[in-house]
Amino acid sequence: MIEFRHPLRKTPLLRTSRGVALVAVIWVTSVLAIIATSVATSSKTETSLSRNRVENAQARALADAGVQRALLTLLSQHGARTKSDNGQSTNPTTGPGLALIQGLQPLRRDGTEYVWPFNSGSVRISVHLESGKINLNAENEELLGGLLRSTGLTPTDVRSITDTVLDFRDPDSEQRTYGRETAGYVALGLKYGAKNRNFEAVDELLLIPGVTRSLYQKIRPALTVYSAVQGFNPNYAPIEAFMALPGVDRQEAIALLQRRQNMLEDDFRQSLPASSLYSSNVAPVMTIIADATTKSGAGFTREAIIALVPSENPPYYIFSWD
Ligand SMILES: [Ca+2]
After folding, report:
1. Measured in angstroms, how far is the CA atom of residue 165 from the centroid of ligand 1?
2. Distance 317 CA to ligand 1 centre (A)
3. What's the rounded mean pLDDT across residues 194-207?
4. What is the pLDDT of residue 81?
5. Per-residue pLDDT tens for 22-61?
6. How many domains would you assign to the chain?
7. Domain of residue 147, CATH code
8. Which domain holds residue 190?
């Protein structure tokens, strides 16, 4: 009986251990499944991240190629223009005798956009001569005020920002009526004051109290620190610079740009009324913008400020490469 009863007594225990083993197996299997899924997901994420990195690098390389191509074309055009100064050619972009490198389309330097299909992707290229913009370091108070007004700021804000910009760069510490020298910055709790020296880059405007990032984005295309003159050259000016002129609204500025697109530089300039706010400066410093999109849709925008110096090697100087 004992021998007979013994296995019977053991049976529930055996069932319990089998149950425990089964639950353990299910747990282990589940944990393994979770680990496997997590490894698969993470390697998928890694693959996807690597692919993104490769695509971004391709877009960046494509944008850089766009800037280099524009630079090569501009140097070639510049050579042609120098020739023209010696009487061997007549027009910088369309005239006879243009010694362009074969296959390169001449580029206008007024912000006209060109599309360059390359390596199954495409690059939108535009060249903006700095002489077409308003110099922050020259006596351009009226244009600066007009530019701020064109963004819809109140007259009070226009006066205050204009005076603060002028106080920021003038060497003295005498505060203008609506401006701000270092004490004015301290009063606002800022840890810096007026620079009392010229702007070295347009983005220093973001240090001026009242210049928000959104305002900066609106006025930035019209501003430069590279032209070194009063007024702007209308042959290369962006729409924002025209809108800084007294009495010129967006519609009129658009009409001016359209007219310029269909005219030779000299003809366009002669068609404009005389104004002390226009300059004839044509310094060979320009912003080249190359906006690249790869065949997979990745994008990158390169913005470079470059001076052409054909007599030197290399024949250009890069001020910024962002
Ligand atoms: Ca000052």
Report:
1. 9
2. 30
3. 96
4. 63
5. 888 888 888 888 888 887 878 888 888 888 899 999 999 9
6. 1
7. 1.10.40.60
8. 134-226+229-271
User: 162-175, pLDDT tens digit by residue?
Assistant: 999 999 999 999 99
Please tell me the distance between residue 243's alpha carbon and the centre of ligand 1 in angstroms.
Answer: 28
Nearest CA-CA partner of 111 in 93, 132, 91, 94: 132
Q: If you average pLDDT over every residue of the chain, what do you get?
A: 88
d(CA 237, ligand 1 centre) in Å: 29
**How remote is the CA of residue 164 from the centroid of ligand 1, in Å?**
9
Which residues sit with Cβ closer than 5 angstroms to ligand 1, an ion?
A: 167, 170, 194, 196
In a domain, 265, yes or no: yes
pLDDT-based confidence at residue 14 (cuts at 50, 70, 90):
low
Residue 188's pLDDT is 96
CA 148 to ligand 1 center in whole angstroms:
20
**Contact (CB, 8 A) for 97 and 80:** yes
User: Would 113 be classed as within a structural domain?
Assistant: no
* Domain assignment of residue 221, yes or no: yes
Cα of 168 from ligand 1 centre, angstroms: 5
